[in-house]
Amino acid sequence: MIRKQELLKLTKTPTIPLLIIFFAALNVVIVMSNTHLKKDLSVLTNLVETYGYEINEDMMKQFGNDYQEKVKWVNKIAPGDDKTYKHPSELLSDDTVRRENTLSDSEKQKLLKYGVIEQYHRTAQNIDDFYKNIDLDSSAESIIKMHGFTGSAADEVRDQYQTLDGRLDELIDNGEHKNLFFKGSLYEMHSFLFRYIGMALIFELMILVVLITAAVTNYEFEHRTALVTYTARRGRKLIIDKLIAATIANGVVMFALIGVTLSAFFLTYDYSGLWNVPISSYFNAEMPLPYISWWNLSFIEYVAIFVLLMMVSQLLFMGISFMLSVFLKNTYLVFFAFVILLGLGILLPSFAPMSSQLVFWLYYNPFAFILNPHLWLMGNGPFTIYANYEIVTISVWVFLLGLGVSYSIYRFHRQQLQ
Amino acid sequence: MLVLNDVTKKFGNFTALENINLEFNHGVYGLLAPNGAGKTTLIKMLVTLLFPTKGEILYNGAEITSLDEEYRDILGYLPQEFGYYKNYTPEKYLMYLAALKGLNKKEADKRIQELLRTVGLEEVTRKKMKKFSGGMIQRVGIAQAMLNDPKILILDEPTAGLDPKERARFRKLLTHLSHDRIIILSTHIVSDVESIANEIVMMKNNTILYNDTVSNINNTLAGSIFETEVPFSDVERFRDNYQIISERQDQEHMTIRFITNDQADEKWTSVTPTLEDVFLYVYEDDQTLAGRVS
User: Fold this and answer.
1) What's the pTM?
2) Which residue of B79, B99, B102 is in closest CB contact with A228?
3) d(Cα A267, Cα B104) in Å, to the nearest integer?
4) CB < 8 Å to B106, chain A
5) Which residue of chain B has the CA closest to A226?
6) If you measure CA to CA, which chain A residue comes closest to B84?
7) I need a labelling partner for A323 at 20 to 30 A (CA). Which of A103, A276, A352, B250 fits?
8) How far apart are CA B46 and CA A275, in angstroms?
9) Which three-class secondary structure state does DSSP give residue B22?
10) CB < 8 Å from B in window 12-71 of A
């Protein structure tokens, strides 16, 4: 009854339901911003439907044969007999074809589609060579030079890239890289989902979590009912009911917003046949250095862990907001104080000397943690490259905030309520 | 029995209450003092919102803070500023507070209907409180304080916002309730407690000045209160010489009630002191009262 009432109070706070609707609508708009890629992306899902996603000899043979058929068709529709095209892209880039406009619309569409298939075929052929040439030692040196690491910090970067090299060998042995996936260098679907949509979700949820937690916790002080409620039999234990109510409300909001956003995403972009593709597939690469996850994770496993980390990080923000609420007793002050902490958490690591290991330690905070969600569990980026970065950050802060929240409840029982 | 032993309350360097010793048994206790005398601080300590800097508050021999839920279970409290959820109906708000007071839904339902009838709000049980007048809100506050049928009922300025009829009804209700419980009624309005309080606690300079029955307190001024008729032309001079308690303007003269220990003049009529006389005499130098006396 008490917790239900605490939850019902939120529905009387119009800002929160309105924000949820606004954020959900905003996320749908962000999701829709890449719909122009849908046609190209469907080429890959069709390829996977035909050949499967695993790149092996048999698959490449069949894929190669079919590709040659496509090249034959390209030469058939090409104007004039004097020139032979080895790939669809050659015809696509031929100025004569463009000038003379001899191709019908359906031929042009088919040619474009074959151009996309060509990209996948060529990339699939070059994977082994590419991975043979990855030199993580020189990557480490470039990173050290780029960020200006010196001394023990530079050694730490070298060590971590060395460890990553071991994982790269394992990844190659497992063949995790040799799987078809949306071509990252063309469509950047990993960044789109886990960085842009992910970041939007994280910051939207952060705003909601801080507001909900502060609103529930401070409700009696902001409605001048604290003198009556905290002198009832339940007394100051009511703060525990409020914490539980805030956790439930935040959980529901997280499920709702994440649910709406990811449903919109996966209903718009067809990932059928790709759920089990390893996240470290070479095709996923968007930068010169491909994504190297510390564990062999499929796309769907990565999505699940991503959602989990996103939700746990929100629980950390809830803990911080709750502590601030117990001492500040005003939603706007809590929000303002939280923004300051957020700024500190993000900026503090940049003040650390690049020669000391401190620079890495300062990144183990919940605010720095959420800055590059698309790199979670990946061996990318010098500051958070550690395999255990996510689990250590989460565990340490769950422990610290658990203590902090318990202390706040203890303090609240002894606070003078005016 | 509720007992305060040497209770002192400080806020930083400011001492709000010093060495307060009080005992409350069954009956109505009027906590009488002007605003700012420390009544609310004392009450907030009695309801566990504030904690004494020094001393102890005991209920039946045990510290009220260590009794925790057991103590609050027998406590009813109406704060000076009674807050409410403006979008709630009194029924819904009382239901929430009943849950906080440990009542189950069935007994809460029955008790809420009973109490809303008692305070004369049975017609508006399902109307949002944002449409209520100050008096109606205060009546909701009185109802919530009695939800758990408390053995200790503490009311801080409960008659604020009530009209005379409502005040009379409220006093009747308190008299009815006072047989088997402690009622502590804090007020700066003498008439609220004069007729119903078994004992009056008067506070001055952060400590207890009187803690006695109304008649005993009144007797402290016995033989010192007079009334006389003074021509308008002499009023100023009279005011300079005597401590005036009240003045009433009649057609040809001013009827003045005053206090003095001088030999009685034949034109003066000795009158029986009232609690109002004591109150005005005691707080004569109090800034809050200055406007009322002069």
Assistant:
1) 0.89
2) B79
3) 47
4) none
5) B83
6) A225
7) A352
8) 64
9) strand
10) 12
- Gyration radius of chain A's alpha carbons: 27
**DSSP 3-state of B200:** strand
Among A178-192, B165-179, B248-262, name the one with the lowest average pLDDT: B165-179
Residues B144, A228: C-beta atoms closer than 8 Å: yes
Q: Is B184 in contact with B113 (CB distance < 8 Å)?
A: no
The answer to whether A231 contacts B68, with C-beta atoms less than 8 Å apart, is no
Among B residues 101-130, those touching chain A with beta carbons less than 8 Å apart: 101-102, 105
Three-state DSSP class for B4? strand
DSSP state of B180: G
C-alpha distances in Å from residue B27, one per residue of A175, B83, B119, B181:
86, 27, 21, 6
pLDDT at B292 over 50: no
Q: Do B77 and A227 touch (CB under 8 A)?
A: yes
What tens digit of pLDDT does each residue of B228-256 get? 999 888 888 988 888 888 889 888 889 99
Contacts 24+ apart (CB under 8 A), A206-209: A206/A314, A206/A317, A206/A342, A206/A370, A207/A19, A208/A16, A208/A19, A208/A20, A208/A23, A208/A250, A208/A253, A208/A257, A209/A250, A209/A253, A209/A254, A209/A314, A209/A317, A209/A318, A209/A321
pLDDT score recorded for residue A33: 95
Q: Compare B36 and A332 and report the one with higher pLDDT.
A: A332
- Determine the distance in angstroms separating the CA of B291 from the nearest CA of chain A, rounded to an integer: 29
Determine the pLDDT at residue B112. Answer: 96
* End-to-end CA separation in angstroms for chain A: 27
- Chain A nearest C-alpha distance from B5 (Å): 20
For B99, which residue in chain A has the nearest alpha carbon? A2
Q: Which of B275, B191, B188 is nearest to B225 (CA)?
A: B275
**B48 — contact with chain A (CB < 8 Å)?**
yes
Q: Where are the domains of chain B?
A: 2-218, 222-282
Three-state DSSP string of A59-84: HHHHHHHHHHHHHHHHHHHCCCCCCC
Q: Which of B49, B72, B84 lies nearest to residue A233, judging by beta carbons?
A: B72
- Rounded Cα distance, B253 and B272, in Å: 22
Chain mean pLDDT for chain B:
89
A9 touches chain B (CB under 8 A): yes
Contact between B100 and A234 using a beta-carbon 8 Å cutoff: yes
Q: What is the CATH number of domain B2-218?
A: 3.40.50.300
Residue A158, Cβ density class (10 Å: 0-12 exposed, 13-18 middle, ≥19 buried): middle
For residue range A56-101, list pLDDT tens digits in order.
Answer: 999 999 999 998 888 888 888 877 767 788 888 888 887 777 777 7
pLDDT recorded at residue B286 = 59
* Complete DSSP assignment for B214-226: HHHHHHTTTT-EE
Q: In what order do the strands lie in the sheet with B75-78?
A: B75-78, B152-156, B182-187, B27-32, B199-204, B207-212
Q: What is the 3-state secondary structure (H, E, C) of A167-178?
A: HHHHHHHHCCCC
Contacts of B50 in chain A (CB under 8 A): 416-418
Chain A residues inside the 8 Å CB shell of B87 = 12
